[in-house]
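To: structure desk
From: M.T.
Subject: fold request, one chain
Message: Could you run this one when you get a chance? Sequence is below, nothing fancy, just the single chain.
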Amino acid sequence: MHLENKKVGIIGTGKMGQSLLRGIISAGKAKPANIYASDVYEPALQALKDELGINVSTDNFDTVDNSDLIILAVKPQILRNVLRGFADHINENKLIISIAAGVPASTIEEELHEDTRVIRVMPNIAATVGEAASAVSAGKNASAEDAEVAMEIFSSMGSAALVTEHLMDAVTGVSGSGPAYIFPVIEAMADGGVLEGLDRESAQKLAAQTVLGAAKMVLETKKHPAELKDMVTSPAGTTIHGVHALEKNGVRAAFTDAVMASAKRSREMGK
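Reply: Done. Structure tokens follow.
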């Protein structure tokens, strides 16, 4: 299945659902006329229809029946009830893509049909600005082509990586929860700038752009972060003194512990 000329459905049009809609359309992955969205909140649906020109409904049946692939963008705690509502409308010709955190593909297969083609995806909050880090894993019935379709969709709103499902808890620790680790870093760097005399607006802008630029260097140069660090730490210079201060305060261990704690909690929630 390729996206061209396929009909795409999205159930749930909260922040993530809306980000997906805008990403798919802006990247030209699907025509607005071929996109169907459903939610319980009609005013928001109408606003999306006016903005994007998509088909909307408060009835999930409309989305399911008219779509070749259905993206589930509802909260994990209501996913089972949502699935039960349209289980009889799913067949082997429809691809299900779920972004519900902590819900295994097997759970979705059980609620629908055992032969349902399911792809599980974990994006993160940066989807709202088109820079999500998403992990894609395939259920037991999904084909390699199904996984490619999901990769195509989620690459349109950032970058995506294909992983086996048992690693989704690790993904939660790294990228799912990751933005929340970086926001305090930006804030702390800005605080340091303010302490040294910068105004708050300038300090925050410089700190945020520094994080963005450093990330882009890692992605585009494909160099090891340690190599990039060494490129800017001259002997007895300002940067190595700053790096030493970070090491003295255990910054590496703190971030590693954060990833491990988040992954552990993800495993607990999935039981």
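Reply (cont.): The longest strand covers residues 132-138. Let me know if you need anything else for the meeting.
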